[in-house]
Amino acid sequence: MSKKILVPLATGFEEIEAVTIIDVLTRAGVNVLTASLDDNKNVKGANGIVVVANYTITQIDVDSLDMIVLPGGWDGTHALTDDENIQSILKKMNEDQKHIGAICAAPFALKQADVLSSNYTCYPSVEEQIKQDGYTDQSKVVQDGKIITSRGPATAICFALHIVKNLVSEQKYQELKGGLLADFC
Amino acid sequence: MSKKILVPLATGFEEIEAVTIIDVLTRAGVNVLTASLDDNKNVKGANGIVVVANYTITQIDVDSLDMIVLPGGWDGTHALTDDENIQSILKKMNEDQKHIGAICAAPFALKQADVLSSNYTCYPSVEEQIKQDGYTDQSKVVQDGKIITSRGPATAICFALHIVKNLVSEQKYQELKGGLLADFC
To answer: How far apart are the C-alpha atoms of B148 and B159, rounded to whole Å?
Structure first.
């Protein structure tokens, strides 16, 4: 059975981050479910790019998920932070000890759900909004238990590859890292 | 007047590459026109991600463009190579000494239009299909005159930033490189 990951797409999501996560995880054979927060599945990102989500968030069977991964972008992050469905899913995934990922501004939404790990990273200065010790800027990707965080658009490939290593295999990680030409990860 | 760039989206386009180009150029203040090759503006990429194009290719006023940039993906590249409108636009842009960009497999579509520069790069092994001397794998981005080529998904941010340096300014390049956390470019 292939692993199943939810990537919610909120209006104002950062497009490089969201698409990189979906693209790389799909290449790894993961079943990636994208979901809009409301009935409009055509979701506009922070830079005006419209991506069509496969589902609306209420259609998602949370128990079937192996992971949820949040793309950044400030407006998108605020929407994920304020959305009751997303906050509820984050808490449930954490209780069930499943993987949770967030990049760029999105660790802010994990903090709101009280699921942010002790050690984490995020987009520079977002840690001032998160107001929690344990922030580091010394690594593109930080894993603490089942929580994986990363920094911004240019770290999105390394973040997605790190998720592949956790959810799929070291072999698939190495294969995709080579195929994507991501020697800097 | 902001610069105007065309990014054609053919079915099977590589999503990280296309979205990175559109995202970064939009951040730079460039007017990015995305265009489908036919009447269906919901275009599915190589990994199943559907992006909504702003225009269809026949709606584009070629004379108003400052540059055309082709994302890769093998199926997308073959479609760009076989499409009369795209091939005609590439030839016209080259005659008018405007910038042309292509990443990953897409330099193959430049070769078909006879506009590929003497020095170029592309996705590893695609040079065997292109069958033209001047290929290098020693640089993430190669510029030769007005033709800019790059290698694959993980070089897309550096490619897009290089275009910003050419079309906008060194200052905007530095600003975005910092903002995207792209210290490896």
So the answer is: 8
